[in-house]
Amino acid sequence: QLQLVESGGGLVQPGGSLRLSCAASASGRTFDNFAFGWFRGKGREAVSCISRNDSFTHYTDSAKGRFTISRDNSKNTVYLQMNNLGPDATGVYYCAADLTLGIRHTCALYEEAMYDYWGQGTQVTVSS
Q1: Which residue, among 25, 60, 55, has the nearest Cα to 39 in the 3D structure?
Q2: pLDDT digits (tens, 9 = 90+) for 63-83
Q3: CA–CA dist 103, 96 (Å, integer)
Q4: Upper half-sphere CA count for residue 81 (Cβ side, 13 Å)
Q5: Cα separation of 117 and 122, whole Å?
């Protein structure tokens, strides 16, 4: 079992930045083997994803150039650095993990159904 806890959300003005964190606790699993994704809203709109060992990252067009996904395997944590935020970034951000994708050294940006583990989300509000 893998438990995910997101943090780092909040209220930020347009043009501002936030760094979201996803802390994972793995029971009998190795964090390093998982691929991770970040999604937004109830519809699980794709934002970004990262494979194991940072070998592969993927971003939506709206996230590309503004957001950076990374992971620190020594801290069992995945990050999403978000810069130059606009109101369209408002929403609840969810972290998700999948072992099968990790084993394949890939991640799935638009296939949220492939992720087996999900956090509770962290709210991001971009407003002046």
Answers
A1: 60
A2: 999 999 999 999 999 999 999
A3: 15
A4: 7
A5: 15
CB 76 within 8 A of CB 26: yes
Say how far residue 19 (Cα) sits from the centre of its chain.
10
Q: Taking CA 22 as the corner, what is the angle to CA 4 and CA 51, rounded to the nearest 5 degrees?
A: 95
Q: What is the pLDDT of residue 68?
A: 98
Q: Please, are residues 80 and 68 in contact by the beta-carbon 8 Å criterion?
A: yes
Half-sphere exposure of 1 (CA within 13 A, CB side): 2
Distances (CA, A) of 83 to 7, 37, 44, 69, 118: 16, 18, 20, 12, 24
Which tokens belong to 91? 């929403």
| Tokens representing residue 118 in the block | 């999900």
Residue 32's SS3 state is helix
Please tell me the distance from the alpha carbon of residue 22 to that of residue 5, in angstroms, as a whole number.
Answer: 5
